[in-house]
Amino acid sequence: QLQLVESGGGLVQAGGSLMLSCAASGRIFSINAMGWYRRAPGKQRELVATITRGGSPNYADSVKGRFTISRDNAKNTVYLQMNSLKPEDTAVYYCNANIYVGLQYGDYWGQGTQVTVSS
């Protein structure tokens, strides 16, 4: 069964850092784009960052210069290094991957990991 498992969330003070990881496992032929999204309380889910298979990143304006997305294709894993965290970064962070499972590509999601930034 294909799944994405996130780790690395937690509680941190403003200005601190956290690193999120997301590993895909199961019957995977290849992974196209991978990314991170977040949903803050009372708000809609929003894109944080994405990265192509070749390593080209894309960031939301709100995190540019503070967050860095990277991936290890051999491990089917995507990372999100978050620095200079702000209280407004508090949200549940979700991993997303576009995965080819043998017949077609499909979008898969992790279960989410809570990030809380205290002021």
Task: Give a written overview of the molecule.
The protein has 119 residues and is mainly β. Helices cover 0% and strands 58% of the residues. It contains no helices and 11 strands. The chain has strands spanning 3-7, 10-13, 18-25, 30-39, 46-51, 57-59, 67-72, 77-82, 91-100, 105-109, 113-118. Strands 2, 4, 5, 6, 9, 10 and 11 form a 7-stranded mixed sheet that branches. Strands 1-3-8-7 form a 4-stranded antiparallel sheet, with no helix packed on it. Strand 5 (46-51) and strand 6 (57-59) form a beta hairpin. The radius of gyration is 14 Å and the shape is elongated. The chain starts with a strand and ends with a strand.
Q: What is the makeup of the main sheet?
A: 7 strands, mixed
Order of helices and strands: EEEEEEEEEEE
Distance between the termini: 40 Å
Arithmetic mean pLDDT: 96
Share of β-strand residues: over 45%
- What structural category arises from helix and sheet content? mainly beta
The radius of gyration is 14 Å
Q: So what's the overall shape?
A: elongated
Spans where pLDDT lies below 50 across 5 or more residues: none
Query: Care to count the β-strands?
Result: 11
Task: Tell me roughly what share of residues is in helical segments.
Answer: under 10%
If helices are DSSP runs of H or I spanning 4 or more residues, what is the number of helices? 0
